[in-house]
Amino acid sequence: MDNESRHRKDNNKNVLEKNGLQSGNLTPIEVGKSCKCHSSNGLHHYNCVPKHLQFNRFVHTGYRAGLSTWDCFKSLFYLHNESFNVYSHGLAAAGLILLSPYFYGKITHLQFDPFLYPIHHITSTTCVLFSAIYHLMSCHEGGSEAYRCFITLDYLGIWLVTSLCCITFLKATLFCFSHAHKVVTGIYFLLCFISLFYVTKGYNPITRMKPLVALGAVRIFILYPTRCMMTNMGYMTGPLGTLWYLLGVEMIGLFGGLLNLSRLPERYFQGKMDYFFNSHNIMHLLVLLAPALLHSGTVMDFEWMQSTKCPV
Questions:
Q1: CATH for 130
Q2: Average pLDDT score over residue span 94-98
Q3: Spatial contact of 155 and 168, defined as CB atoms under 8 Å apart
Q4: Mean pLDDT, residues 162-184
Q5: From the DSSP assignment, how many helices (H) and strands (E) are in the chain?
Q6: What is the C-alpha to C-alpha distance for residues 150 and 128, in angstroms, rounded to an integer?
Q7: Which of 2, 11, 3, 12 has its CA nearest to residue 35?
Q8: Which of 95, 80, 181, 60 is nearest to 137 (CA)?
Q9: Full residue range of the structural domain in which residue 25 is found
Q10: N or C, fewer C-beta in 10 Å, the chain?
């Protein structure tokens, strides 16, 4: 090894150690050629980044690490392995905000309850907005502490939209049973806050997803069948058609989560799907279908409640 190569390797090692990174797992090719950790605006190899950013070993390149807040924002203007995630949900959030006059204009005849539709619209918007913020800022120089704050923000958005997706459904299901509606809604909100507590205590994707899945099971196996049973027993309740939209939202969340955990298809194309169409990218696209389904189901329940007169 000549003096120049030895000097470059020593410098690379010193920079890695200074930033709290470990070079022990790096191959000579990664240190000397592939890894651009030490160039201006350079991108890192998987082995170069801190442990909290090593959550998908099948995505090899394109990582950012140790950036200041301003540098995180500047990364909007060059390609890295989070660009797809940032823009897919960031543009979706902008679209939901810009199109809000259109959405609210379409339901002006359904304003008997001024809160329900805004809750659905706001939670759908915050879900994709918080996701974009997390993916943009996950490489912050604050390290694992900053990362935990941003990923908690991401899961807060997921919790908001999944927890509150059924509140209009609940109101329509028990529309003519106001006391039962208050009791059931109170119990459900209590379960929601319990699930939020465990989500914030999670330390990896599985432990964060478990409370959300448990709450989803309450909706799928208790709340949704309640409307079917009430219909079969002859009670006045909301339309069964709404169930297809809400079950679609649930299936999108479940399938997207399982796809993300499976690491498919990048598991079989390692290093070739680092920037586009890996499992997380596909999940981001699937999630964009949920607001449309939620809007359709919500409007269907609104229209039914608007036209229904409960027996005295």
A1: 1.20.1070
A2: 96
A3: no
A4: 95
A5: 14, 0
A6: 13
A7: 12
A8: 80
A9: 3-65
A10: C
